[in-house]
Write a structure and sequence with these properties.
The protein is built from 5 helices and no strands. The chain is mainly alpha-helical. It has a single domain, classed as Spidroin domain, C-terminal domain (Arc Repressor Mutant, subunit A), CATH 1.10.10.1350. Helix 3 packs across helix 4. The longest helix is centred in the C-terminal third of the chain and has 22 residues. It starts with a helix and ends with a helix.
């Protein structure tokens, strides 16, 4: 992905539409619970679909970059709003199954 595509996607993050999609992604991910391994892929799929339908001029690559930035923004918001207790380092490898 070129730097121009990444820069354009980052600038689109400030749009009201992107903000709404990020809020929706946060809601979907949190309400799905931590053990729903399909939640992340479903959220990415939903965001891709919404971006594609509202931005018909974007290439598939641009849509994917935009969607991933929005989903990462949602995940950062969730982590920033979470209260994390003791971390079980032994089971960290299981996180790869979710992703």
């Amino acid at each position: 992905v070129g730097s121009a595509a990444a820069s354009a996607a980052a600038s689109r993050l400030s749009s009201p539409e992107a903000s709404s999609r990020v809020s929706s992604a946060v809601s979907n991910l949190v309400s799905s619970g931590p053990t729903n391994s399909a939640a992340l892929s479903n959220t990415i799929s939903n965001v891709v679909s919404q971006i594609s339908s509202s931005n018909p001029g974007l290439s598939g690559c641009d849509v994917l970059v935009q969607a991933l930035l929005e989903v990462v923004s949602a995940l950062i918001h969730i982590l920033g709003s979470s209260s994390i207790g003791q971390v079980n380092y032994g089971s960290a490898g299981q996180a790869t199954q979710i992703v």
